[in-house]
Design goal:
The complex is a heterodimer of chains A (297) and B (229). By secondary structure, chain A is α+β, with helices and mostly antiparallel strands. Chain A is 71% helix and 8% strand. In chain A, strands 2-3-1-4 form a 4-stranded antiparallel sheet. Chain B is of the alpha/beta class. The chains are: A alpha+beta (297), B alpha/beta (229). Bound molecules: adenosine-5'-triphosphate and magnesium ion.
C-alpha cells in the first residue's frame, strides 16, 4: 500500500547517499560475482563430466567363422534392442581402412596384413538414459555364441563417477560457504546504510508513521541495491565467461571445451534473481525492525 | 474531562536518579501552558511521556481520559498524529530540502502529488520560508531550522501543539516571531504547551505556567520581580 511512496523515497535516498549506495552495490557485485563464477565453473564441470559419462559406445566383436547371414541377423537384433540408439557393422576392410587412416604416413606397415586378421565388429551407441545399463546390455550379448567379446568403457565409467561425486560434494560446500558470506555482507551493508538513515526512521516514528510505512522505503531500497548488485554481477560473470570461452577456442585442444561450455539457463538466473531480491528486502526488513524495537518506549 | 492528564507519574532513566516523582497535572482542551524549570529539570522528559516516546515507571498519562501508556504500536502512531511537536533539537533531515522535511508528516498521512505540494507551500508561507523551499536544511541557521520544524509540526493541523524550547537559539526579534506564530496556532483552537527556561518570554507572552522543581510539577504564578527559577 505504500509501494509508491516507498519506491520514490528509496530512489531519492539512494541518490542522496550515493556513496554509501554505490559502496553497497559494489560489495554485493563482488560477492555475487564470486558466487556466480564458482557456480558456473561447477556447472561446467558437471556438464562435461556428464558428457564424458555419457560415452555410450559399445563394440561387439564377432567370432570370425560366423556367416554373413548370422551377422545381419545379429545386427538387426542389436538395432532393435531398446537400449540401443544406433548400430553399424564394421567390416574388416573398413576397420583396416580406418586403422590405416589413423596411422597416416605409416600405413605401409599394414600392407602385409590380410583382411581376415581383423574381426567383424558391431559398433553401437546406447541411449543416454540407459547409459547406466551398458553392463546389462554387454552381458546379454556376450552370452551369444556368435559373439567373441563385448568391449565398453566400464572401468573408466566407475572412476569418473567417483570423481564426479567428490566434485559435487565440494561444490555444495563452497556454494553454502559463499551463500552464508553473501547474507553476512548484505545484512552488514543494510546496517551501514541504516546507520545513515536512522535519523529518518526516528523522525517518521515521531510524526506517527506506521511500521509498515517506515519499512516500505527501506525494503524497497534493499531490493533495489540487490537488483543493481545482481545485474552488475551478471554482467561481470557474462564478460568473464565470454573471455574464457574465447580464450579456450584459440587453442585446438581446448576448442571443444570452449564451444561446449554452458552458461546459466534463464530459469536458474530467474530464481537466483528472485532469491537475491528476497534476501535484499528481507535483510533490510530485519534491520529496520531492529531500529524500531530500540525506539519502543 | 481534561484533554491531557498526568496522574502520579514517576520517571527515572536506567540507573539514574528519578527525574519526576509522583507528579500530576491536567490541561483542558484549548489551553496554553508554559512548562518551565532549570536545565535538566525534566521538561523534555514530560514531552516524551506525552508523546509515548517513554513510558512512566508508575502513574497514568491520559488523553481524553484514555490511558496512552497502554496503546499498542498502531494506536501509538495515530496518537502521535494528533500532536504537532517542535523538538528541542529540531529533528530535521539535514540532507533534505526544507520542502521535503515539511512534507514528511503529510506523506505519512497519505498525501501525494500537487495537493501535497500546495499544502507544503502553504505551511512554508506561514513561517515565511516559501521562497527558500528548495534549500537544504544543512545550511540553515538555528532560527530558520526552528521555523521549518514549526511548519512541519503544523502539517496535520494538529489539535495539540508542543514546542520544546522553540526560542532557545533565537535572537529577540526571531523569538517574538516564533511566539507570535505559536499564539496564532493557539488562537485557532489548539491546545499548546511550550517548554522554556526563558522567564522573559513568559513575562512577555503571559500564560499559565507549570514549573518542574525538585522532581515535582506545580502550577506557579511567576512574579515580575522573580530573577530566576
Ligand atoms: N535518554 C536518557 N537517558 C538517561 N538520562 C536521561 C535521558 N534523557 C534525559 N536524561 C536525564 O534526565 C534529566 C532530565 O532531562 P530533560 O532532557 O528532560 O531535561 P530538560 O528539562 O529538558 O533540560 P534542558 O532545559 O536542558 O532541555 C537530565 O538529568 C538528563 O540527564
Ligand atoms: Mg529539554
Amino acid at each position: 500500500m505504500n509501494i509508491r511512496y516507498g519506491f520514490s523515497r528509496a530512489v531519492r535516498s539512494l541518490l542522496t547517499n550515493w556513496v554509501v549506495s554505490l559502496n553497497n552495490v559494489l560489495i554485493l557485485t563482488a560477492c555475487l560475482s564470486v558466487l556466480g563464477m564458482v557456480i558456473l565453473v561447477y556447472a561446467n564441470i558437471i556438464h562435461f563430466s556428464q558428457i564424458w559419462l555419457a560415452n555410450t559406445n559399445v563394440s561387439i566383436f564377432l567370432k570370425p567363422q560366423i556367416s554373413a547371414e548370422d551377422r545381419t541377423v545379429l545386427l538387426e537384433e542389436v538395432r532393435k534392442h531398446r537400449f540401443v540408439r544406433s548400430a553399424v557393422l564394421i567390416t574388416p576392410d573398413k576397420a583396416l581402412e580406418e586403422l590405416a587412416e589413423k596411422l597416416g604416413a605409416e600405413h605401409s606397415l599394414l600392407s602385409g596384413y590380410k583382411d581376415d586378421v581383423l574381426p567383424y565388429v558391431i559398433d553401437l551407441e546406447v541411449f543416454y538414459e540407459y547409459r547406466e545399463k551398458v553392463g546389462e546390455l554387454a552381458a546379454a550379448f556376450s552370452a551369444r555364441d556368435t559373439v567373441s567379446e563385448v568391449v565398453y568403457a566400464e572401468r573408466m565409467l566407475d572412476q569418473v563417477k567417483t570423481f564426479f561425486r567428490i566434485v559435487q560434494g565440494m561444490g555444495w560446500f563452497f556454494i553454502a560457504l559463499i551463500l552464508v558470506s553473501y547474507y553476512l555482507v548484505i545484512s552488514h551493508a543494510t546496517r551501514l546504510s541504516l546507520h545513515s538513515r536512522r535519523e529518518e526512521i526516528e523522525i517518521l516514528n515521531l510524526v506517527g508513521a506506521t511500521r509498515g510505512f517506515i519499512r516500505s522505503s527501506f525494503v524497497v531500497e534493499g531490493i533495489l541495491v540487490s537488483l543493481s548488485g545482481f545485474l552488475l554481477a551478471l554482467g561481470v560473470i557474462w564478460l568473464c565467461n565470454l573471455l574464457l570461452v574465447q580464450g579456450l577456442s584459440q587453442d585446438e585442444l581446448t576448442a571443444p571445451v570452449g564451444a561446449g561450455a554452458v552458461f546459466f539457463p534463464l530459469a536458474h538466473l530467474g530464481s537466483a534473481l528472485g532469491g537475491a531480491l528476497v534476501l535484499g528486502g528481507f535483510s533490510s526488513f530485519l534491520s529496520v525492525n531492529r531500529v524500531l524495537r530500540e525506539l519502543e518506549p | 474531562m481534561p484533554l491531557i492528564e498526568a496522574e502520579n507519574i514517576s520517571k527515572s532513566y536506567l540507573g539514574m536518579l528519578p527525574v519526576l516523582e509522583n507528579s500530576s497535572f491536567r490541561i483542558e482542551s484549548g489551553e496554553f501552558f508554559y512548562l518551565t524549570g532549570v536545565s535538566g529539570a525534566g521538561k523534555t522528559t514530560v514531552f516524551k511521556l506525552l508523546m509515548l516516546m517513554e513510558r512512566p515507571d508508575t502513574g497514568r498519562v491520559s488523553f481524553d481520559g484514555q490511558d496512552i501508556t497502554l496503546l499498542e504500536t498502531r494506536n501509538r502512531s495515530l496518537h502521535r498524529r494528533r500532536i504537532g511537536m517542535v523538538f528541542q533539537d529540531y529533528r530535521l533531515l539535514d540532507n533534505e530540502t526544507i520542502e521535503e522535511n515539511v512534507a514528511i508528516p503529510l506523506r505519512v498521512g497519505g498525501h501525494r502529488g500537487p495537493g501535497l505540494r500546495r499544502q507544503t507551500e502553504n505551511l512554508l508561507e506561514q513561517v515565511g520560508l516559501a521562497d527558500r523551499r528548495r534549500e537544504k536544511v544543512l545550511g540553515l541557521s538555528g532560527g530558520e531550522k526552528q521555523l521549518v520544524s514549526i511548519a512541519r509540526a503544523l502539517s496535520f493541523n494538529p489539535g495539540v501543539f508542543f514546542a520544546d524550547e522553540p526560542t532557545g537559539n533565537l535572537d529577540q526579534s526571531m523569538a517574538f516571531r516564533v511566539m507570535d506564530l505559536i499564539k496564532e496556532i493557539h488562537r485557532k483552537g489548539a491546545t499548546v504547551i511550550v517548554a522554556t527556561h526563558d522567564l522573559n518570554l513568559i513575562r512577555t507572552f503571559r500564560a499559565r505556567t507549570l514549573l518542574i522543581k525538585d522532581r515535582r510539577i506545580h502550577e506557579v504564578r511567576l512574579a515580575d520581580s522573580q530573577p530566576s527559577l
